[in-house]
Amino acid sequence: MTARQIRSYGPRMALTAYDLSGRTALVTGAASGIGRASAVLLAQAGADVHCADIDTEGLAGTLDLIAKAPGRGAAHTLDVTDRAAVAALVGSVAAGEGRLDIAAAIAGIVHTGPALETTDEDLERVLAVNLKGVLYLCQEAARAMIADGAPGSIITMSSGSVDVGYPGLLPYSVSKAAVVQLTRTFATELGPHRIRVNSVAPGWIRTPMMAPGPAPGHPETAARLATPEQIAERAPLGRVGEPEDVAHSVLFLASDASAYLTGQIIRPNGGLTMPW
């Protein structure tokens, strides 16, 4: 590396690498938890963030946080299992903004129960949201980005459950493992179009999905499998994760700071899983 190249990596680049000013982002699952934290952080970085979720009331809360950031956001009620609805929303956002730079497929649900008792309905319900919903957004976002001709970033949400065999999480773990392969395939096919596709695989994060009882707008959500105290004892960092911990990984993958990353799995999990 020449002296000139070294100088180019100065404070200014450190600040601008994460600057999303002038870019448009679409985030599913934005009504709560990781999706909400990611939407707010992307807005703080300068992006115009379109927030989508089936939970309309939760979306209103997210927009309030974005406005206080301060930032710019819009809310869209969306069922990610509806392919036509996903296509319509992506088309509307891309047409209205003139571009779609970032798509984050964060919407997800969990089902708990013994593997031997998993029914077709259990599996199909989780796969519809966690796999098909991700597929639909990736496809439609990719089409919009290719048509625009500019570089883009697609971010999926996997899970630490893909690295270990957690009991009671068969449909969820299977769906998230499938997301990993989906991410790698899209990354391979979209690379020539300058579209990066990466995934975030969080560990135990303090979100409504992990709290006892159903999350607002998500009746499928099951009770958590472990308490925060139990998780903190097992984690090398000695604590559970917060949505903001994951949101920073989303921002990294959305920004130019990760311009040479694609097909990768980022694991903000406090050290709970360390794959070989």
Please explain how this structure is put together.
The chain has 9 helices and 7 strands; from the N terminus they run ααβαβαβαβαβαβααβ. The chain is α/β, with parallel strands linked by helices and 276 residues long. The protein has one domain: 3-Layer(aba) Sandwich (Rossmann fold). Strands 3-2-1-4-5-6-7 form a 7-stranded parallel beta sheet, sandwiched between helices. Strand 5, helix 7 (170-190) and strand 6 form a beta-alpha-beta unit. Helix 3 (33-44) packs across helix 9 (243-254). The chain is globular and about 50 Å long. The model is unreliable at 1-7 and 213-224 (pLDDT under 50).
Q: What share of residues are in beta strands?
A: 5-15%
How many strands, which pairing sense, and closed or not: the largest β-sheet? 7 strands, parallel
Structural class: alpha/beta
> In the residues, how many domains can be counted?
1
Number of continuous helical runs: 9
Q: Roughly what percent helix?
A: 40-55%
Radius of gyration: 18 Å
Q: Separation of termini? A: 31 Å
CATH class: Alpha Beta
**What would the average pLDDT be, to the nearest integer?**
88
Total number of beta strands: 7
Task: Please provide the ordered H/E string of secondary-structure elements.
Answer: HHEHEHEHEHEHEHHE
